[in-house]
Specification:
The complex is a heterotetramer. Chain A is an all-alpha fold. Chain A is built from seven helices and one strand, in the order ααααααβα. Chain B has a domain of 36 residues. In chain C, 20% of the residues lie in helices and 28% in strands. Chain C is built from four helices and eight strands; from the N terminus they run ααβααβββββββ. In chain C, strands 2-4-5-7-6 form a five-stranded mixed β-barrel. Chain D has one domain. The two termini of chain D are 24 Å apart. Chains in contact: A-B, A-C, A-D, C-D. At the A-B interface, helix 1, helix 2, helix 3 and helix 7 of A face helix 1 and helix 2 of B.
Chain lengths: 250, 65, 181, 222
């Protein structure tokens, strides 16, 4: 990296990034060669090492968005508003990945990519669509404070989905195609469990890395908006000055 | 290994998305950081020290704003 | 001029606090209410378990529904119904068993004791598949055209576990049904 | 409070009645959509029967988007929101009043559509109470969510496109629950329609409460 390149990185993010890269390598080795195959699903079970961490990523991201939204509404804190926006953007990626890896896993194991009857699948899809709506609303532009309030309400509406998604397999136990919580009531081989934890840690580190970068981008955008306003004011005043001086000389 | 195709697609897309998003964040950050005057750039660094960042970036960035 | 125009920190817009605190509390209450309601409607969604499907057979009539149960190992027969390849088997759940004729190929992971979820309807005739009598054998069968496998949250490798741990969904009691063959 | 709610509902409905947009445009739009679905699926009557409930409620959602757009436009035009606030009416009363006005319009269109479904789709009603209850509860749920989001997007520049993106996913549970309840009421699927109705009611209560709470701050700020 050249010395004069200005970016949103810092020593912390570089360390985090390196940890994520090492972690991904470890996860690939453990996931494909370490963990044993499942007696029912055979090797298809190895999808859990990317699917479940992504799902946990949704929970983390949505919890952050919910807290950020509440803090904006309560304290009018720009910091928290940017946090809410950042985590929602990362959350939509985790959500998309959860849906995608789940479908690809579902084809060999359930015999279907998608099942409209399953509560967990459908509620996750609804959350994904609501997050897309959230980002669309954010990109619509307009007054910054009003936008933050609107986004906070939508963010909270979307966050309500998360407990339903998480609990759906318990509430509708014996009524969903999706298996119950693997971590809390599942029965896992030691190495499978360990690999799963590695996956969760790697995803969590990535989440923090992305949050820091995305937050700084949000902060810079906020600064830029202020600066644009100031620049426009200066220009307008300069115009006004030349106009009036022109009139006077006439 | 059974189901290798499905596994490669699932893992590939997951890791690929992560890499793409990370790259986009870094590039967007660079672009924005270059456009924001030094005194508004908190946390931004050009090397490892947070304090020296503003100073080292000042000469070439100051003119732009 | 520049000193005067430096961007300022946004003014804190401290509007009325109370409504938002109320909103947050209400949100928590609302989530709790929602949780209660979904608990109340449990038992009505998505699929009928085999015992419920048998119990409500007259109500269901010939309408389509989704059925869940565990295939009984010794009953599985792959054969033909006319020219069509079918899989015939009996499944059980909650003490009741149902004879099933599934039209089409079975799911990849279809196997004994792993619950399946099937779309189809009751047919008031015994199944006509060569070599298949059915364990329920009650003059009805379930004609299915879509099969999904409902695997559980156990990720176990048989080589390292002497016996299968049957901690999965309560109510699956395929072990109670004894094959006659 | 009830007087205020009635005032707002009455005002919105009167504006709607005078412009006759619901009657002359939205209702024909809904029937056209139903007929077009009929054209699209006509080749297979079985598919049409199986899809009736879903098509019905999907059409209702489209109608709801239009109704909410209209309702929001009434409020944003000429600073009517400010005037409403200055009149000293509680924001939650405004919310309930506007939601009721939207609900009445959607219900009116639904009555027409039930007729259309019976006529064009050859549907048979097996449980009239369930059918009516589903219409009533689902409509209230839709109206509550719609009114809240209508206020939310009122100040957004591209609100015509942002509203459907936000409203339709939020209403997805209504679409699912109301369609399943209708499946039971029309005798298409063997499901417990009353249980789905319970889910619908829960969703409606949640959205109505949220709307009443969030409406005031949204009105003030945007």
């Amino acid at each position: 990296m050249s010395a004069d390149a200005v970016n949103t990185g810092s020593r912390t993010t570089r360390l985090l990034g390196a940890a994520v890269l090492i972690g991904v390598l470890a996860l690939i080795l453990l996931g494909f060669f370490g963990a044993p195959e499942d007696d029912e699903q055979r090797d298809a079970v190895r999808m859990i090492f990317v699917h479940l961490p992504s799902a946990f990523g949704i929970y983390a991201a949505m919890a952050t968005t919910a807290v950020g939204s509440v803090m904006w509404l309560w304290k009018r804190s720009r910091w928290w508003d940017i946090v809410a926006h950042s985590s929602a953007e990362i959350g939509v990626i985790f959500c998309g990945l959860t849906l995608f890896t789940g479908s690809v896993w579902g084809r060999p194991t359930w015999n279907t990519y998608w099942d409209w009857g399953d509560v967990r699948l459908v509620t996750t899809l609804i959350l994904f669509l609501m997050l897309v709506g959230y980002l669309a609303l954010r990109s619509a532009g307009g007054d910054e404070n009003a936008m933050a309030t609107r986004a906070a309400v939508v963010g909270l509406l979307a966050a309500v989905n998360v407990p339903i998604i998480n609990r759906s397999v318990e509430w509708w136990s014996n009524r969903t195609l999706h298996q119950k919580s693997s971590l809390t009531d599942g029965n896992l081989e030691d190495l499978t469990l360990f690999t799963l934890f590695v996956g969760i840690v790697v995803w969590a580190l990535f989440f923090v890395w992305a949050m820091i970068h995305r937050f700084r981008i949000g902060w810079l955008e906020h600064q830029l908006r202020d600066i644009d306003l100031e620049t426009a004011l200066i220009q307008r005043r300069a115009e006004a000055a030349t106009e009036s001086s022109g009139e006077e000389s006439r | 290994m059974t189901h290798l195709g499905y596994l490669l697609v699932g893992w590939g897309v997951s890791l690929g998305c992560g890499v793409l998003y990370a790259a986009r964040l870094v590039l967007r950050g660079r672009d924005l950081a270059a456009r924001v005057p030094v005194e508004h750039r908190r946390w931004m660094t050009s090397d490892d020290g947070a304090g020296s960042a503003a100073e080292s970036a000042a000469p070439d960035q100051g003119a732009g704003s | 001029m520049t000193g005067e125009l430096t961007p300022r920190a946004p003014r804190p817009l401290r509007s009325r606090k109370a409504p938002w605190v109320a909103l947050v509390i209400a949100l928590a209450v609302v989530v709790a209410v929602a949780a209660l309601i979904v608990n109340l409607v449990e038992g009505s969604l998505y699929f009928y378990n085999a015992d419920e499907a048998v119990e409500e057979r007259s109500d269901i009539g010939d309408r389509r529904f989704t059925l869940q149960g565990s295939p009984i190992g010794c009953s599985i027969v792959e054969g033909f119904s006319g020219d069509e390849p079918v899989v015939a088997f009996s499944l059980s759940f909650g003490g009741a068993s149902v004879d099933v004729v599934h039209h089409g190929d079975p799911a990849e992971l279809f196997q004994a004791d792993v619950p399946v979820v099937l779309d189809g309807a009751w047919v008031a005739q015994p199944p006509v598949v060569e070599g298949f009598t059915g364990i329920a054998n009650d003059g009805w069968h379930f004609s299915s055209d879509r099969m999904r496998v409902k695997h559980d949250n156990d990720y176990i490798n048989d080589d390292e576990y002497d016996e299968r741990l049957t901690l999965s969904d309560a109510g699956a009691d395929s072990t109670e049904v004894v094959c006659e063959a | 409070m009830f007087a205020d709610i009635w005032l707002v509902t009455n005002k919105d409905l009167r504006i709607e009645w005078r412009s006759r947009v619901t009657l002359s445009q939205v209702a024909p739009f809904a029937l056209t959509v139903l007929v077009l679905f009929g054209f699209a699926l006509d080749a297979n009557p079985e598919v049409l029967t199986a899809a009736t409930s879903g098509l019905f409620w999907l059409t209702v959602l489209f109608v709801a988007v239009v109704a909410v757009q209209r309702s929001t436009a009434i409020e944003t035009a000429d600073g009517a929101r400010r005037a409403l606030l200055l009149a000293g009416i509680e924001p939650s009363s405004v919310f309930v009043g506007k939601a009721l006005a939207i609900a009445v319009q959607i219900l009116g269109v639904e009555v027409l559509m039930v007729g259309g479904v019976l006529l064009f789709y050859d549907a048979t009603v097996e449980s009239l109470p369930l059918l009516l209850a589903t219409c009533a509860v689902a409509t209230l749920a839709i109206a509550a969510s719609g009114t809240l989001l209508g206020a939310l997007v009122a100040g957004v520049r591209a609100r015509e496109t942002v509203l459907p993106i936000l409203l339709l996913p939020l209403l997805a549970p209504v679409l699912i629950a109301a369609s399943r309840a209708f499946d039971d009421a029309l005798g298409v699927l063997a499901v417990d329609g009353w249980a789905w109705l319970g889910l619908l009611a829960g969703f409606g209560i949640v959205n109505a409460l949220l709307g009443m709470l969030a409406y005031g701050p949204l009105l003030e700020e945007t």
